[in-house]
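Dear support,

I submitted the protein below through the web form. The confirmation email said the job was done, but the results page showed an empty box. After a refresh the structure appeared. I'm attaching both so you can tell me whether what I see now is the final result or a partial one.
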Amino acid sequence: MADGKDERRPAGELEASVMAALWAAGAPQTPGQVQRSLGTDLARTTVTTILTRLHDKGVVERHRQGRGYAYVPVQDAQGLTAKRMHTELDRDSDRETVLARFVAQLSPDDERVLRTLLEPGEQPGPS
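What the results page shows now:
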């Protein structure tokens, strides 16, 4: 039997790798282009499946290119992280408790950043 390195990787890891390749490219990419930029032994059909799933999740857009599609991220990495945070928050009916526990677990630096973002009176800006 093969060692752990040869086993299938979790879909989340593959999706993250594909997204990283799309962000690095900075332009729409076909599955073949993504496959080459990953530099792995993933089949093009596997990359196509991952891109299709990402499209179905609304994470990438696709545009017809020849007989196939070229894919582009809908958001940057930080925007995608924020979207995931909203998705997790939406899964629980007690938003107040979830938010309270989230805030309680923030580091002092993150708490300062959040306070600055939430208290516009303390931010310099146009009057």
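Response: this is the final, complete result; the empty box was a page-load delay. The CA atoms of residues 1 and 96 lie 49 Å apart.
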